Amino acid sequence: MSWVRLIDIDEPVVIWLGALGSIYAIYKVLSAYLATPSAAYVLRGPDSPSWLFGNDHHMRMYRNETLARWLQEYGTTFAIHGFFGSRDLLITDTKAAAFIINRPADFPKHNLMMRISKKVFGDGLLAAEDLEHKKQRKVLNPAFSVAAMRDISPMIMQVAHEMRDQWKIKLSKSTYGPSCQEIDVLDWAHKAALDMIGIAGFGYKFNSLYHSSNELARAFNELSTNLKVFSFAGLLNMLFPILTHLPTKSNLATKRSMAIMRRIGSKMIVEKKAEANQLRESSSGLRKDLLSLLIRANMKENAAEALDDETLLAQISTFLLAGHETTATAVSWGLYALAKDPNMQKKLRDEVLAVHNDSPSMDELNALPYLSNFVKETLRLTPPIVAVKRVAREDTFVPLSQPIINKHGDEVHELFIRRGEGVYSHMYAMNVRFDLWGPDALEFKPERFDKLPEAVSDTPSMFANISSFSAGPKGCIGWRMAVLEFKAILFTMVRTFEFRIDPTLEISGQFVGPKSGSQVVVSGIQKVFRLGSKLEIRCSVVLLLPTRLAFAPPKFADRSRSATPDPAHLPFAWHSSLRYLLTFWMGSTNIEELAIWLVAIGGSYVVYKVLNTYLETPSAAYTLRGPDSPSWLFGNDPHLRMYRNETLAGWFREYGATFAIHGFFGKKGLLVADTKAAAFILNRPNEFPKPRLIVSVTKSRFGDGLIAAEGLEHKKQRKVINPVFSPAAMRDISPMLMLVAQELRDEWKKQFSALAPSSPTQEIDVLGWAQKAALDMIGIAGFGYKFNSLHDSSNELACAFKQLTMSLKVFGFIGLLTTMIPALRHVLYMQPTKSNTASNQSMAVMRRIGSQMVAAKKAEAELLGETSSALGEDLLSVLVRANLKENASERLDDETLLARHESTTAAFSWGLYFLAKDQSAQKKLREEVLSVSTDSPSMDELNALPYLDKVVKELLRLTAPIPAATRVARDDILVPLAHPIVDTKGNGVNELFIRRGESVMIHIYASNTQSELWGNDALQFKPERFDKLPEAVSDIASLFANLSTFGAGPRGCVGWRMAVLEIKSLLFTLLRTFEFGIDPELEITGGFAIAVKPAVKGQEAKGVQLPLRVSLIET
Asked: Label partner for 11 (CA 20 to 30 A): which of 434, 527, 808, 886?
């Protein structure tokens, strides 16, 4: 049976659609390449991080340093990537922006945005175009005039007073005392804005500030919650409107809310019209809310120009959602800015307290200069809508105010935009252009509006030379009301309250609806999306059929069925033509036969690749001996990531220092422990970069930091970071590390004090405590940040870090698939699984708090000067100061400064394990550390303890946190060997031929435990071996103590000194106070999470752990 029939689609229909689709695709591709290239394809611009969403993420961010960097790098106008691989333009050039904004007929809204507007607001002003928009605007204008704003000003001020009074009540009941309370300002701003638009817009009381269960308020809030326009599910809903009819929880709630809003809104219109008719002859008693004004203005129009009830109803939704969000957003950002700057807050408070009236008029509010400046600056940096997209209706040339450079290095004085191409007028970007607003454009400075730079006068604007409300015929009609509401709330609240914010918090912009309910929507879409994927896959064979029409010779054999057309399915001419095309391509119209033919092509390609591999000069991966593969999927990987690995040691004895191994999916590679070969590879990072898969995983979880950087970017970052980990910097942070070690000691002492005297020993999970101590160490010494993990497990950043490390599944089956197929990772990460949700939330928390750390350190360095003695000595402070000293081209961006890294928890835990197993070594080390007369030795004093130094070296030799490093040959290359090895034919090999793209694993653990280098006792814990090392180990590529543990060469571990110092501090402190033992029944193995950490054999379900018996030493 034909596979096509599985989806109940007749074969002729599939053939017809497939052929037409393919011909159209070919036409579009050829048209794109043969046509004169538009600006979207010739201008420079950033790369796309996602085929699906393009650069959309960075387009919708506040305080967007990435966007600012793009403006500096590419100019005022550049190319960006849109949804589904499309290309668009981002424009901040004032002349080009004005040209586009003032021609809405030539540059209408994108069809997708029109669908969104109509779904949310109905056929109101935001969704109207051309003559309909002009008609609605004419009727609406009087409702938003200056006179109308004066009339509603008392209503708005009254709501502001109600918000103030509710806060007073809340403060009186505060658990922090009668004068202090933590308040979610955004939530209250939403309530106040809703009450304002209710009373001033419709004469309707929502009473949101009083927690009323008003039906319309509930419907509005539920609708707001379920609007997921900018999520993946929301995007699918807009692209495929049929999905909104599915009976998902979100869709049903949205329809229910819209029905309530429609019912109550219709009732309002009927009542307002009746009232207007009744009072038509009299001006007394007329209501002054906006809907009343709108209806009276509408009644004055002739029938052709008047709005019908359906359009009036759509304006209610527009007023509610658009006006409410604008005010709530502005108020929240404004109060946030005041909380961050007490001096600014005091200045504003002094001004508003000078007014001897709690209820000033609109004109009195507008007469307050600093309040006006503050409102303008808030709206400049945090426009409610970040960008507006327009689409060229026809091919158009757009003028520029200043030339830009295209990707060919040529100057461009005007933009050629093709019909259908998108253009973003970016309000935020235009508001922060350095060449318009000055070098402090990203800073919050209300005083700038006392004397604006002349250049900003060219900005297309409706208010204060800022783009926040857009401009032109489609600029925001309600901007005066938004400004008035904002001023009223600020005036009232700042007169009565003082605002502060937790200094550890950083507030970021989120341009989506509330998160609650989003998983329901996504899961509802998933089922349909998967069904669509099956249909697309099953049709893909047919879609590919016509693509070789011009290349294959004609064959006219119809071996399966008559070519006579079936008129029930297709017209004769089309059916005959399509069968002719298929017969011309490969001589058959039988679907099963075509599928077999395509499978044969795929099989032939695989055979070709295999034969090509064997017919080429064989590389070392195919000529050297090596172990068999136990699994085609994972190869030898499980044995390559084990500690105390007798299997691996046996391979070295059998095959030599370098041998062939099996990788993932049957791929062959090399394991290299030969000292000369390893040094050759590690010292040539440009010829042997990291695998793209590993870089992709690293970037997805840890950002564009040093670990993920390659080439010149790595060199740049390393140059700035090196001073942070110098011996001098380590001396400065040594007291901080020792303090955390002592806090760990004291916590353990507390546990013993709670025990009965008859129980001097207790079992402690050393690994768990080591993780906490290491996190506190990197927090205080690395960032000047107190995690307090040893005392309190509720720290937000500590919880996020722990959750992120738990959610990393890089080496599981799913993790393997997502590294091999990066596109799959984007699909899987969009699924609302518990792990994905936790991981994304953790990364968001770490990014938010980390960004604040960087901003604070930068501000401190710029304020106090780079050489001030008051500057912090933590590593991030040193790094920021070093970064500020670099010129612009060498300086790291904040994204790079925030890359995270794993601590040295694993090495310290293994150290205690070895000491627990070797009581004589533990006793010897304790005697040495007890001979020191201070509890807080300096780094130099720690380094002067010989046995401690040898113990640390030995544990790092046997337990490198990362057991191996993989590199990939960029080109065919010959790698020299220190010692010859024997290949599969018994021939001696003195150098390795490695083909381009083949992987090489530098095995750190293997290099540290080779019996030929370290002796027959290489797998034993013997610190004394460092008294006199074998001469052979001097050839090992190393950063520390002839060990491979920290790598070597330009990409060796930059933080090795800190790792060693941390381990020494912990061992010194704990061994002075405690004795360590272990249950002889337990067998400890290595569990691979981010680093290889101890785990109990037989208790793998509990995860990594190291239970040791700890006793308090009598002192």
From this structure: 527
